[in-house]
Amino acid sequence: MIGFWNEEDDDDRDTGYSGGFGSANREDDDRQHPDYFTYRGSVGTGGDNRPNDVLKAETTLGYAGHYGDLERLDGPTGYAGSGLVEGIRGYQKAHGLTVDGRMDPGGETVTRLRHDIGEDFASHSAPDHRTVIDHHER
pTM for the whole thing? Predict the structure, then answer.
């Protein structure tokens, strides 16, 4: 499973979006950055914490085993909190990166995540925040 639902469940969701992760109904900003490793702003401590970027961070860190809240919350939320910052810091420490609790666009943490798990995400586009809100409202 990549993201917050199984791809097999895509047809069962009534979100108005088709194609699961690769929706054609994204906001313009997200059409330019649909993958999990391209960020419009920083996530974490002192970051912009844009919901769509936070979703990407939550999902990739959870998949990499550094964001335990992902399962407890039934998937990513798009809202940055202390658990996410702890996950970022834990990933950074485990991989010998600068431990600052922040993921910058094109920065060392995002680059390392792409290196470590990017192949697993290559065929998926990140969900947008509206899709995640719909998921959590069910």
Answer: 0.74
Residue 68 identity: G
**Cross-strand pairs, 10:** none
User: Residues 49, 80, 74, 58: is their CA dihedral positive or negative?
Assistant: positive
Instruction: For residue 43, give the H/E element and its range.
Output: strand 43-44
Of 14, 89, 90, 10, nearest to 44 (Cα)? 89
Block residue for tokens 């969900």: 127
pLDDT band at 33 (very low <50, low <70, confident <90, very high): low
Q: Tokens for 125?
A: 């586009």
Cα gap 108→103, rounded to integer Å: 8
CA atoms within 13 A on the CB side of 99: 9
